[in-house]
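Journal club side-thread
Mid-discussion, someone asked how the predicted structure for our own chain would compare to the paper's figures. Pasting it here so we can look after the session.
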Amino acid sequence: MQRRGWRACRWRSKPCSSKRMCGARCRSPSGSAGSAESRSAPASSGRSRPYSAIIIVIRERKRMRRSSLVFVALTLTLVGCDALRDAFSSRADVVARANGQTLTVDRLAGWAGVNRDLPLDPQTLGRVSHAWVDYTLFAEALAGGKDLHDSATAAATMWPMVSQIKWQKLHNRITARESLTPQQVDSAYQTGQVRVFQHILFQVPQNAADSIDNRKHRQAEQLLPQARAAGVRFSQLAVRYSEDPSAKTAGGSLGLATHGQFVPQFEEAAWQLAPGGVSSVVRTQFGYHIIRRPPLAEVRDSFRVGLESQITRELDSVYVDSLDIKRRIQPVGRAPDYVRTAVQDIDGARTSTRVLVKFRGGSLKVRDLMRWLAALNPQLLQSLPSASDQQINQFLKAITQRQLLLEQADSAKVTLSPDDWRQVREEHDSTIATLTTILNLTPEALRDSAGTSAQQRVTFAAARVNDYLDRVLHKRARYFPVPMFLAERLREQGNWSVDQAGIRRAAERGEELRADSTQAGGVGGGAGGGAPRMTPAPGPPPIDTARHPAPGRVRSPR
């Protein structure tokens, strides 16, 4: 009988005084470690197992586990993360979802497979998928009877236009002052720091033949006596003879000028003229000039307007510079690289929180830049990738200044007048009407063709979206994108997703369809049968973007 408190050790035939039933290194009752020979298998097993053999088995199992892990890691490396993610994706047969509707891999592949002008890469097919999401959310809103003409939707959709109006009102407050008096205008003209010049240009193209150069020179010399005697009629001669298109319609006027604005030959001759004086014929890289400095009596009004505009620009510049210093606007070190990456993936960048510019009290993120780019000239998207780091940083600082000015406009309670709102609503309503007509989802169409239930109307609207994009990608219709800010509003209020695994599968399947059609004799489009490019719809009248963002109803294709 075993001594009380002892337990049978699994690996020993004798009782064990250890409190552990673990098969660990045991000790005899005397406290010494048991010998290797005494470590035998349990008596009940009917045979003994040497301890050294057990250690060998354990080590071999560990080695096999390590080998398995190495094999798995090697497999992941060879297969690739994207392929593995696709293999385990339960949604790989779906490219995109918008509320209850789905865009399948087969449908997207079918669209892309027949359009040989459409690149079969994930980025391009991703743009098509996002276009489907935008149109589907819009169509479902119409089918569900949602009011897309309310003030909140109009303000969000027309954010570029609303922002510009606010900025202009703030600008007017900053630069508000009394008009210049006649005495101030006289004093400014007499000091001569700012002057007005007119000229008549006989243009000589670069690398022109000597015969052309000589002919232009003779024409200028022949007109010179008449120009010197013309006086106030100099502007009429400029309209008739000058080949400078920018100044010809203004009577040859070059506007207000300060020292250093012209090429050296022109500068030297012009600034020697007294009021009413006319220069000799002056040769510059542009051709032959006859220059005149008109007296104040002839240009008083235009001189005053020019002075006031210059003062306004200086006030703007001083205000913005003070804002820059006060808020410590500073682009981050890798901002240019982040911008170049963002403009290559517009859809991904629209939600990116990566910081581009830091300033006291906040930052400008990639998603903020994307909003501004949608409001500015679409050509900026094409020029930014090739811009220098310095140019991109300057552009980011200017965008940040605009954003801070808008924040100040809101803090100053700058609001839109009833007339401003009327213009905003007209633009917004026009956008909604255009998209509704494109899909043929007018209230009459929904009433007469969609059925009575809500689900029937939604299904009908979704079918119209698929039909429209099918016609676009089969080159039977022109593509008009849903304006970015309307799309943002719809996405905020809906449930949507775009699956990258599904896009990759659609690209692969599209390649298969094209290969099959080629083998079958070019069914589905051949050389020269590509679809037209997806070009943006015409926007509102152009607005000067050199000083502030221009409103835009329609974004460029993603």
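Post-session note: The CA atoms of residues 384 and 502 lie 30 Å apart.
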